[in-house]
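Today's session is about reading a structure prediction critically. Students often jump straight to the picture, but the first step is always the sequence itself: look for stretches that repeat, for charged clusters, for runs of hydrophobic residues. Only then move on to the predicted structure, which in these notes is written as discrete structure tokens rather than atom positions. Here is the chain we will use throughout the hour.
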Amino acid sequence: MASTKSIYSFIYNRKRQKNGEKPIELRIYFPNKKMMYISTGIKILEKYWDNEEKRVNRSHPLYLEYNEALYKLRYKIEEYEYRCERDGGDFRKETITSMLNPSWQDNDFIDWCKGYNYQEEKAGIIKYESWQKYNSVINNLKIFSQSFLDKKGKLTFKTIQTKDFAENLEMEIYAHYKAEVGNKYITLLKKFFNEAQKKGLIEQNVIGLIRKRKVRTKSRRNLTEQELKRLEDIDRSELKKYDIITLDKFLFSCYTGLRISDNSALLKKDILKTENGLVIDIVTEKMQGQRVVLPIDLLFDGKAGAIARRYMEEYPDIKTLFPSLTDQHVNKHLKRIAFFASLDNERLTFHIARHTCATLIAEKSQNPFLIMSILGHADISTSMTYIHNSTAAMIKNLESVKW
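Below is the predicted structure for this chain, in token form.
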């Protein structure tokens, strides 16, 4: 006797794609022997798919959330089939599509963004600080989209796909933010629009219609060798414990060019002992995870190496090179350090430390490729800026000219 129930199964990479993440689909095999494939909106690498169990395996950081989403979809359609059989409804491809799509388009995009952000932080894909940053972006999106909320206060998936929404959002962003901050906000927001499109939740991704504003190029402030020496020679007996830690972190970035994020996340295991002395080997948090290798005993007479050895010895029980400090505390200690080094008219930041490293290397080496390698620049033109701004470079070039 032929079955009167449909048969459900999850299919991975039905179209035999070769590269990258491949989609998971729900296949419905109807009693009349016709089939239907429904996109689940989930794409994963092949190594994460358990073909025997027909589910995402445990090695994927979001396997619990993904499997829950898969089986919720299957249960929803199975329940719909049961209701159709009970009430005499028509269970076929067109009615299933109609049942699934309209309800989803009326869901709240902001709630989805918050859920997605939470899942990434919970799975360790992003750090807590990044979760906070993205959460702020999501909350502000609701503020910027007040005129597009429905009667229930939702910003629906249907609404965010219109040109009017994109134009209004652009106007609101730059009414609240200066160009540089507004541009960063758009970059962060793109993540959620792109992910929604990738998962098949929206067809029209209008975030690309928002035009970023031009930002005036700022001059790069850096410390001179004399100012750097003042920091090195500061009387540490007048400083508190965390003043000293902050000072060493700052000097370490002056000698290595590390950003504050990479400086704070630097693990002791990332500092290798080689025949050329200590070498930092890390993947940076910025620039899509670019690898940077720094022979720190060969930079600035090994001053960074000396700091690293001291902290590995003084703090053997922590994984990071430096004890953890919040940005707020770092800024407070930098103010005290600037005062004691007679730099009280200058606000010290880790951007200044990074620019100091690049500028001093430019003055001493005249080699933009060396700057590019040490600072992890993605484009040689960024490194060339330091050469162009170097007074020493100008003098050397002038000396080589035959007048």
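Discussion point for the tutorial: The radius of gyration is 28 Å.
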